[in-house]
Each structure stands twice: as structure tokens, then as C-alpha cells.
Amino acid sequence: MFHPDLTHLARLFLAELLRKNAPNGVQRVLQTLQHFERFLHDRFRFRREPRTFTVEDLTVEVIAAYAVASAKLSSKGMHPQVLRRFYRWGFRRKMPGFREGVLTALNAIQYTRALSGHIVRMAHPTKGAFTWEEEQLIKIRLREGRGRSGDRAIVATFQRLGIRPEAMIRLRRRHLRWRDFPDGRSYFLDVPKVKQRGGLAKEITVERLIDPFLAELLLEVMGEAGENDLIFHWLGGRAKGNIAAALKHWAADAELMTIRHAPLRGKQEGVDATLPTRLHVFSYRFRRTMATNLAVDGATAEEIAAALDDELTAMAAVYTENSAAFVDVLERTLDRHPDWVLVVRMFLGDIASPLDESHPPVYGGVPHFAGYAEFADIGVIGHCDNPELCHKEPPLDCYQCPHFHATRVHAPHERQLVQIDQELRRCRGRESDRMANLLRPQITAIVELLQILTNSRAGLLVRASANSTRT
What we know:
By secondary structure, this protein is α+β, with helices and mostly antiparallel strands. The chain has 21 helices and nine strands. Helix content is 51%, strand content 8%.
């Protein structure tokens, strides 16, 4: 759909990005432009000839429509933000066709943020951090010498250092060093910084201490390399693909198995069990495992970012704020120490008064849950006093909204809780197990509301009893 002039500008934009950004990031920008071109083809195929979309056609309306179309993707706001970045680049370089009014309007658009950190927060069974048992199994298999030496070296490097694949394929002989101390020899590995701007061109590295076991594996594969300067010399041109293949091959040789979230594939009727399946092993799982362990041990976001070789602490903060151990401890502690509820509140609304009934009602029952017909008559669960257009999803999100005034009747809230519990039971073992984690805040908010209503009713009964006694 792009006019040749627009295609040429896009190439100039990508070429300039390659001078300061990592190749993977530039590739994602290219994929966004290709995705946008496909969107134009689907949208204007009945009204436009191919290769006719120019810079003048890149209007606010088109980009806003593309943002709406991209909202359902996992990347969400990343796609339209790339177009805004491209338009800002063309305007600053005074390219023909780029107008200041359009750029101002684009800067004012609020895009949906891309989904980030969900794998860590939900403890994804195949992409998230390894469990303690899975970690121990990997360590045992490494010590046993399972698999090929080159595959073992790759796994041990990821497991000890948690580095990125881009850094691993750039490791050279000179990066492995050792120093002799009175108590023995210590080994160090200079890991290339692949995310820092200009880090690859200036060959900036960070020194990491490694154990003798990993050093011996690296020295072994370096001896096999001959005169080749690269440590992992056999990876070749498709280095990242070969790393993934090596990890998968070693997991098969080492017979790595797990029983976590492994439902039966056969869908046999009346059978509710799990079977061991092959453990999914790839490079970023080791990074997430190392960061999760650091967060559990009490490391700060700055310390985790330094260990991950990240310039920003945004991703590291996800580990410190959402470590699975903290969530488990908090869940156990809430029942033992009710004072925690004063610190961690999920129900953010208020109890409705007779004056609140003038506001629009909020009806219970979640339409997209199974068995909605059984709960369609829940009725009014409260009222909303938000004067603006609301983007939340009633009725679940209402319990965590300060504009929500919950009704004092227990029955609607109890039935709403029953519907959520029924949906979780339906999804367990059949669909995504993340549903329980996604609905945990709403469940806790409803439980807190019911507790508040119970306590307030008990207080009214006590006061009524005292008044009758005095009478």
C-alpha cells in the first residue's frame, strides 16, 4: 500500500535507528510498519489502488483507527507509538509532507500501554521463572554431565549469569579471565552490554564473577574452537535460532520433566489427572528465574536491574512488587492478622445511602462467563456516581472503583461471588489457569465488602439491643 516515496522514508528511518538501537528493536519497528501496511490494505482495499498511500494520508484519524484496531494485540500501544515516532522523526528533519498540526494531535492521543510483566506476575508455567524443584533438576543434570558439552556450556552460562542471547553470541576468548589469589583461582567473564546505546560499537562489557564449573565448561568448548575467537563458535549465522535449538536438544538429552500445569492431552471423560511433560527451556526463563530469586531474597529494583544489565528499573520493579513468595505470604497472613486489611484494601467503593439511589444502577452478572442465564437475575449491586465516560468493565471492576456505592443487601454480592467461583471451577484444568490470578483482586474486594456489611449489621444489632435494654 505504501507509495514508493513513503517506502523510501521508512527505509531512511530504519537505517537511522540501526545506528543507535539494537537490531532486534529495529526489527520490531519494521514489523510494525508491515503490520500497519496490512491494516491499510484491509481497510482501504476497496477504495485505493496499491502503492498509493503517501505521507499526506498519514492523518490523525488513520492512526487513531489503527490504535483501536491494535488494542486487542499483546503489544497494544507499541504499534501506534511507532507511527508517532516515525512522524516525529520526519517532522524534525523537515521531510516534505510532515505537518506540525498532525504531530501535535498525535502527541495528544493517549494510547493503551503494551502488556508488560504479565509473565512474571502470573508465574507462567512455560514462560515464567523455574520453580525450586525445576531449578534443582537442571543443576543435577548439569553436574551429571548430561548432553553434549557445547549444549551444557550454553545452559550453564544462562543458568549462572542470566544474560541475553545477544550477549552470549558475542563472547570472545579474551572475555574469559582469571586471577590467582592466596586462597585459589577466581574466574571472571566480561559480558558485552548489548542494550546500552553504543555498547556494541565501543565494546563495553561488565565484569561478572563465575564459578569454576562454568569456567571449565567454557575452557573445554574454547579448546574445541581451534583458532576461532568466539567462545560459542559453532552457533553460526542463525545464532539465536541455534541457541534455542541447543537448549531444546539438551532438555531432551537431560530428560527434564515437570508435572506443573500439564493436563492430559487426550480429554478423556471422567479423568482428572496430570502427566509429566517436557520442561520448556529457553534463554529468558533463566533471566526471570534469577531476577525472581533476587526479589525473594530482598534485592532492590536497582540491584536486580544491575544484575540483568538493564539501564532502567521498570522491569526490575515488576519482580520486587509481584514476587510469588510475597503474594503467598500475604495470602496466608490476611486471615491470621486482620489488621493487614487496613493496609491492603481491595474494595475501594462505599456503602450506598438512600441518596445514592438517584445515580445510575449497576447490575450484577458477568455476561461472558459460562452459565450467565443462571445469574442474569442478580439485580442491582450498587450505583455509580462517575459523571464521565467509564472505561471499566462492570460489574467486576466496580468493586475496585471509588465511584461505586454498593447496596447494603448481601444476596446480590454473594450470588456474584458464586458466579465467579463457578467460572473458575469451569476453567480449572481446561482453559487458562491465569483466570484465578486475574480475578483474585475482584474476589478479595467482594469478600471485604461482605465482611464490612456483616460488621455494620452486627453493630446495628448491638446498638438496637442496648436501646431496648435501656427502654
